[in-house]
Design a protein that fits this description.
alpha+beta; three-stranded antiparallel beta sheet; three-stranded mixed beta sheet; 7 helices; globular
Length: about 210
Amino acid sequence: MRTETLQHIALFDKCKNFTRAREVQAAGLYPYFKPISRSEDTVVVIEGKERVMMGSNNYLGLTHHPEVLAAARAALERYGSGCTGSRFLNGRRYRPPFARRIGIKLFAGLVSLIVRQRLTDTTSGFRAMNRRGIILFADDYPHDYPEVEATVMVFRHRLRMLEVPVAMRERAAGRSSITAFRSVYYMAKVLLALFVGIFRRNVVPLEDR
């Protein structure tokens, strides 16, 4: 059996040659993305059945709070296609761990250069999108650590996104799953994903689809 060395492996060939997902999608089936018909706190309805939601970032259970929904709608109506809540625009001192702080500043500076707009908190998962943004992400949404890539996608599809100040508190108890090693791994992986995303050829404005 011949063992290939890393020098002989084309890094992106396996990704480009994987067509099964789009073939199934072209047939009208979506095996990887199940539409949610109703979402209430930790329970969602998928294909007419109630399921326990274990993949949400709704840590505080405020996703469906009337005041949160009203504020998100007001921000969308004022700012355009989408808005992101930034921890660093409200005048309060939010101080994440050192390794994470390095990553936040790195990606904020890099994405600001790519999209030509100053952004301060590209790793914030607190965001809202209007119909056009939802259509974009329903068709193609980054996996693993999506916040940074998704921000670039919004601008590359000629949509508009601005940051609004939000108040986020530091962890009061427990331990973060993102260790110093994982922070470095995260930064390397997202940098690679951004590099690949910049040179994607299938970025098409929504109105041309």
